[in-house]
Amino acid sequence: MKKIVFSLMLCGLFGVAKSANPIATDVFTADPAPLVYKNRLYAFVGHDTAHVGANTYQMPDWLVYSTKDMATWTSHGPRLAVTDFKWAAKAANAAHCIERNGKFYWYISIIHRSDANSKGGVGIGVAVADNPLGPYKDALGKALITNEMTTDQTHSWDDLDPAVFIDDNNQAYMFWGNGSCKWVKLKSNMIELDGPITAFKPKNFTEAPWIYKRKGLYYLIYAANFPETIEYCTSTSIEGPWTYRGVIQDPTPNSTTTHPGVVDFKGKTYFFYHHGALPTGGSYRRAVCVETLNFNADGSIQKVVLTQTGPKRIKKKFLLF
Ligand code: CA
User: Fold this and answer.
1) The predicted structure's pLDDT at residue 217
2) How far is the centre of ligand 1, averaged over its atoms, from the C-alpha of 130 (Å)?
3) Residue 20: which of 290, 285, 258, 260 has the closest Cα?
4) Ranges in the chain, pLDDT < 70
5) What is the pTM of this model?
6) Residue 318 pLDDT
7) What DSSP element (H or E) covers 110?
8) From the CA of 196, how far away is ligand 1's center (Å)?
9) If you measure from the C-alpha of residue 110 to the centroid of ligand 1, how many angstroms do you get, rounded to a whole number?
10) Is the peptide bond before 253 cis (omega within 30 degrees of 0)?
11) CA of 157 to the centre of ligand 1 (A)
12) Can you give the pLDDT at residue 3?
């Protein structure tokens, strides 16, 4: 009943028949990563299951949603879980799924068990499937990145939040990090590193880097400060140097974190994030939302305006291609 009342309240505020934000209201979702494949936009998200009033994350698995029109979302439920990674202990943290040559590689950050490969802390793994909804299996049977492989930060969760980008020359890169931003080249098989790891500190960087390319310019978009804003840098090279360009998003309602995911779909650019503003929501019970992202003529990004209506529904005539 609460959900219905809340939806009606939003409809009343905005004078619309349906609210598209958040994309799900029956579960709590976080850390969105969009993927466009075959006329659909998929949102790969984390799953907050912490009880009301809890002050730690409880995240057992990852969920997938999809849409064709940016207004109506289909829930595909959990598609990957902590238990799919034998070397992992807990915490289905931020993740990113990307397609290459018809295979889907879902990079996840998770707390490693203490074993021969790692003493623990957050590591990065990768699961692979033949279609975006899976079934996915651990591609390596071990971590791709362990906490020990980066040492520029001393805390055990500095290897959170993978984001993978394949450049126009087919070179794949993975960016990630908390406290510092790290990047490494990936081999074309997408499950092996292809060179050394570089760590650097974009201005105000906290975590959650995301790479986006537009008109030959690379955008490094990330969560900054705490409570988190979303800020960004640009560069003519994905390997930097990066120029700081400003704030895209202020802290989101009722959440200490937010998390960027940017993608082009049917001629527009969309920005995914999360807030904690659902009834009984909060920093550990978050909700994924999406807005249209707009650019200025000089390539700078306009500040995101949070809405409860979400992006405009894509017209039927544009849904076929
Ligand atoms: Ca580390």
Assistant:
1) 98
2) 31
3) 290
4) 1-19, 320-321
5) 0.94
6) 74
7) strand 103-112
8) 14
9) 13
10) no
11) 7
12) 47
